[in-house]
Backbone:
């Protein structure tokens, strides 16, 4: 499929073990072992946004950057949309078996919904994703990209205590 320039997307992120991470103003967050479904939206430049998510050499800026430093993107689902249905998607995904909002406010600083990050113990089946996310399609990701992301390492701390870009 051709990638739309704007749209809503879901990152299916695998955590092979739990990890405690300091996420900006949210403070210390424990990400559980299992899967995290992150719902985001790009008003433009969707391709560039997804490429950024898949890259490991970047300054940690958004909430999602901190999670992706310890987790692995396994699937990306995308739908072209002018509306902002991230909240609706997050709410739909939270009906999966065993699902819960992973961290209140994660990725949803701009809205009042419970959060745009949903935790599920098992990887969601494609048929469930299709049912819960109407009009969404799964992107095919190059294996090399996935492996590149798989072992993202944090850049070293500089003398000032801030992480430096490599
Ligand atoms: Zn929301």
Residues:
């Amino acid at each position: 499929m051709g990638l739309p320039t704007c749209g809503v997307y879901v990152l299916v992120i695998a955590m092979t073990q739990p990890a405690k991470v300091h996420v900006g103003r949210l403070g210390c967050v424990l990400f559980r072992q299992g899967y995290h479904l992150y719902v985001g939206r790009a008003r433009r430049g969707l391709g560039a946004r997804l490429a950024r998510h898949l890259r490991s050499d970047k300054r940690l800026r958004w909430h999602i950057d901190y999670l992706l430093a310890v987790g692995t993107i396994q699937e990306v689902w995308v739908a072209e949309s002018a509306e902002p249905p991230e909240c609706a998607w997050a709410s739909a995904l939270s009906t999966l078996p065993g699902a819960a909002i992973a961290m209140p406010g994660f990725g949803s600083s701009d809205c009042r919904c419970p959060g745009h990050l949903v935790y599920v113990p098992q990887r969601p089946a494609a048929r469930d994703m299709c049912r819960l996310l109407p009009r969404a399609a799964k992107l095919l990701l190059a294996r090399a990209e996935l492996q590149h992301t798989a072992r993202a390492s944090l850049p070293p701390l500089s003398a000032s205590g801030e992480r430096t870009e490599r």
Notes: The chain has one domain: 7-150.
